[in-house]
Please model this.
Amino acid sequence: MSHSVVLVTGAAGGVGSAVRARFEEGGWQVVGVDVREGPGVDIIADLRTAAACHQAVREAISLHGRLDGVVLAAGLWTEGPTSDTSEEEFDLVFDVNVKGSYFVLSAALPELAKTSGFVTALSSDAGIQGNAGAAVYSASKGAISNLVRAVAREVAPQGIRVNAVCPGDIDTPMLAGQAANFGGGNPEQYLADLLSAYPQGERARFVQPAEVAGLIWFLAQKEAEAITGANLSIDFGLSAGI
Model:
């Protein structure tokens, strides 16, 4: 009996590794792709070129002979005044967050058509609302949020479903790095300021990677067949006021 196979980009990251664990728990074969070596990474690839994206998909198919799903979890954060954005910073964020996701998705569609598979991309609350001081990141995640809508309508006749999950801040090493890099020397206060925007007040906490992985797992199931072209928030209501 053939096992279902999912390709996960950003597999070395907090969300990517949680997604791998959840799908393996569910009996799926997982092919992890990342730019760096690490636990759960099967293919080393810098997905900032279309050629690298297509090669990663080919390698994933060669490992297990099929592809039933793709989770696009690779991404990076930046912030700062829009007037200070360099072209190099802009290109890096869009190459990782948008171009890599687009061309992995593009390369995978012919295989997913054979299995009536799914694609779930990691967008953000910043993909459905504007985050002041993070224009480049917000623009990149906005592109992902609308990409899934467009592609979902295009490939629906082939039985492929395409969605995005839109988390708030996730308790991962990436968030810790974000606080260290952009916290002005006070990462604890930076994180506290993020939490202060949540409607839970003193009960506020960050989303856990396993919670995001659980939502992505649900979207892969038969019970979610009616869900496509959706951006599903998982942010404690952070973006509910827009």
About this structure: DSSP finds seven helices and seven strands in the chain. The first helix runs from residue 14 to 25. The chain has a mean pLDDT of 96. Residues 171-206 form one domain.
